[in-house]
Amino acid sequence: MSEEALYAIIYSVIAIFVIYTIVIIIGFIQAYRIDKRNFDYFLEIKKIVEEIKQVIIKEEFVTMGKEIKNTLTLSDLVSNKASEEQYEEIMDMLQQLVQETYADYKFLIAKSKDEAKDPNFLQIVSNWHDNPELHKKIFSKSIDYGIDMKELQNKFANRIAEGKVLDLGEDVTVLTDDGTGQSPTGVSPINSGLEGGEIAFIISFIKTENYDEWYKNNFPEEEDVVE
After folding, report:
1. Could you identify which of 7, 34, 47, 157 might form a hypothetical disulfide with 38, taking C-beta atoms 3.0 to 4.6 angstroms apart as the criterion?
2. Rounded-to-integer distance, Cα 185 and Cα 166, Å
3. Residues 47, 144: one domain?
4. Taken in order 33, 39, 45, 51, is the CA torsion positive or negative?
5. For residue range 38-51, what is the model confidence (pLDDT) as tens digits?
6. Which of 19, 36, 64 is the last residue of a domain?
7. Alpha helix (H) ranges present in 70-210?
8. Distance of alpha carbon 50 from alpha carbon 144, whole angstroms
9. Host domain of residue 164
């Protein structure tokens, strides 16, 4: 279901509540003004209206929250290979998740005392209960598509470095390679759909003016070769 369709359903449910609430209030007033017998009669009508409303709301939310069911074989789990379009789709969802989490101040920031040696460290963590629907969608599609986690992490790190995920502001360089073989920027492995899990994002960055000095300290062998 598309995001537009989801919002349409939510708005329709809200509209149902508003319309029926107005009708009931007006009915109460009118019935009370007429006489007690009509008032009791209106209470019966109200009961019927409430039952109809609950049926409509139930149908709306069953459609909106349709359960995602896994039909993959064990062979599928290890054999499926994702296309470039599917990687982009997963990264779009991860981007949405990191932006919403960052906007809600759910992160840790560790500022460097010396950027020439160590970068600033930003960790953004989204827990399952914060956005269970999006978490499940990310995990289920990653599994269905056969996403290679290492490739996804590299691709997403590059997207972050390009400033497409979070606004980098001025004079900031995101580090995607620090010579350790482990990317200092990226997303945690998405290999669990269990409730209570989390998806964490790590971004290592420094001021651009300190990049050359940082590079010399972290890739000394390459500097020697150049000389």
Report:
1. 34
2. 13
3. no
4. positive
5. 556 666 666 666 66
6. 64
7. 74-79, 84-103, 132-145, 149-161
8. 41
9. 74-226
**CA proximity to 159, closest of 176, 134, 179:** 176
pLDDT at residue 12 tops 50: yes
Co-location of 29 and 115 in the same domain = no
pLDDT in tens, 106-160: 999 999 999 999 999 999 999 999 999 999 999 999 999 999 999 999 999 999 9
Helices (H), the chain: 3-34, 36-64, 74-79, 84-103, 132-145, 149-161, 211-218, 220-226
Label residue 54 exposed, middle or buried (CB < 10 Å: 0-12, 13-18, 19+): exposed
pLDDT at 63: 42
Which residues sit opposite 123 in a β-bridge?
Answer: 108, 202
The pLDDT mean for the chain works out to: 83
Question: 74-83 burial, b for 16+ CB within 10 Å, e for fewer?
Answer: eeeeeeeebe
Say whether both 127 and 34 belong to one domain.
Answer: no
The residue written with tokens 């995101």 in the block is 174
Phi-psi region of 190 (alpha: psi -120 to 50; beta: other; left: phi over 0): beta
Question: Phi and psi (nearest 5°) for 65?
Answer: -105, 35
Instruction: Note whether 50 and 108 are same-domain residues.
Output: no
Q: Is the pTM higher than 0.90?
A: no
Residues 36 and 79 in one domain: no
Is 57 buried (19+), middle (13-18) or exposed (0-12) by CB count in 10 A?
middle
Query: CA–CA separation, 142 vs 93, rounded Å?
Result: 11
